[in-house]
Design a protein that fits this description.
This protein is an alpha+beta fold and about 350 residues long. Helices cover about 30% and strands about 20% of the residues. The protein has eleven helices and eleven strands. The protein has helices spanning about 70-80, 105-120, 125-135, 140-150, 160-165, 170-175, 220-225, 235-250, 260-265, 280-285, 315-330, and strands spanning about 1-10, 20-35, 45-50, 90-95, 150-155, 195-200, 210-215, 295-300, 310, 335-340, 345-350. The strands form two sheets. Strands 1, 2, 3, 4, 5, 6 and 11 form a seven-stranded mixed beta sheet that branches. Strands 8-9-7-10 form a four-stranded antiparallel beta sheet.
């Protein structure tokens, strides 16, 4: 039995749009069993079962050529001249990450898929090489790097040579084996260049925990990107640059400085434009402050939303209750979780 465990992640921390992410303690877990003594009757030698969190989990496709996680694994295997899974491979997916809520559910699936391909194919890939494969599917490194490496990370995409740049934005459907083309589709997919992305872990104070307020509706990443402007003013760019430069250090200080962190978590790049997608967002971001909510350090949208991430050192129930109350005034129901950084990132147990 092989067990792969991948944490959820919160990206766009404060002013860190497409830059900063943190792995948190809700997990996607795979239980993999390979029994080559049995004749394989499953497509591509892989049978999938699923138990999952929240709305939409019953719609998860369990066909290995259509499920995101196993399609990613097939992509990794076929880049190494392996057509399918070893017979007979069984994959049980246990998912505690809410879908479409801004907690990195798709990023976790991509990381888990790459690790699944690495394990069943006995490929021996390093985490740095696995990141290259992840970034061929998921173009935003803040989620996948946080989930893969763990902790609080900063990321950027490398400047590649012209040939690699030409395929840098390959759509997911052109990279992964696609069911519409039959079982031979994607037999020779594009192999990732080396060093697509870069990451660095930042310090994180042991006093800080994360309150995730999770509304009962989804915001698609694509829709959340559509509302963003194509160009930004110099003032807005400088606003975020100044704050992310301080925030990456401020979150590692002990004791944490609430006023500094709160101010450093302000954003001018994405949150102002996504307020129409998330009822109550503007009121929450403007009214929930350290001075009025003791224990609070800072507050921001998690990823593309709709989850709100509040960093705090104390009074977690009170802070969560106040944010849920604000959402309730906008007729939005929520649940909440108290989370910690998942410092180990993605792990494998054999």
């Amino acid at each position: 039995m092989i067990i792969i465990k991948v944490p959820c992640s919160s990206a766009n921390i404060g002013p860190g749009f497409d830059v900063a992410g943190i792995a948190l303690t809700r997990f996607l877990v795979l239980h993999i069993d390979i029994d080559s003594s049995k004749a394989s009757g499953a497509p591509l030698n892989c049978a999938i079962t699923y138990e999952g969190e929240g709305e939409g989990s019953h719609d998860i496709d369990l066909a290995p050529d259509r499920n995101l996680l196993t399609r990613v694994a097939l992509y990794v295997l076929r880049c190494h001249d392996q057509h399918g899974f070893p017979p007979q491979t069984s994959v049980h997916i246990k998912n505690d990450i809410p879908l479409g809520r801004g907690l990195g559910s798709s990023g976790a699936a991509v990381v888990a898929g790459v690790m699944l391909g690495n394990e069943v194919g006995k490929l021996g890939l390093s985490k740095d090489r696995m990141l290259d494969f992840c970034l061929m599917i998921e173009r935003h490194p803040d989620n996948v790097a946080a989930a893969l490496y763990g902790g609080f990370v900063g990321t950027f995409l490398s400047d590649l040579d012209p040939e690699d740049m030409a395929r840098k934005e390959i759509p997911l459907s052109e990279v992964l084996p696609a069911p519409a083309g039959g079982v031979d589709t994607g037999l020779r997919p594009p192999v990732p260049p080396f060093g697509i992305g870069n990451h660095m872990r930042f310090p994180w104070s042991s006093a800080i925990r994360a309150i995730a307020i999770i509304p009962d509706f989804e915001v698609s990443t694509a829709k959340a990107r559509e509302v963003l402007p194509a160009m930004y003013s110099r003032a807005d760019a400088v606003f975020n640059l100044q704050r992310i430069a301080l925030l990456t250090h401020a979150l590692g200080q002990s004791p944490p400085d609430p006023e500094l962190i709160y101010s450093a978590m302000q954003d001018a790049i994405h949150q102002p434009y996504r307020k129409e997608l998330i009822p109550g967002l503007t009121e929450i971001l403007q009214s929930v402050k350290p001075k009025t909510h003791p224990g609070l350090l800072g507050i921001c949208l998690s990823g593309a939303g709709p989850t709100i991430l509040a960093l705090a050192t104390d009074n977690f129930d009170y802070i969560a209750g106040e944010i849920i109350k604000k959402f309730s005034e906008a007729n939005v129901e929520c649940q909440w979780s108290l989370l910690e950084p998942a410092q180990e990132g993605a792990t494998v147990t054999r």
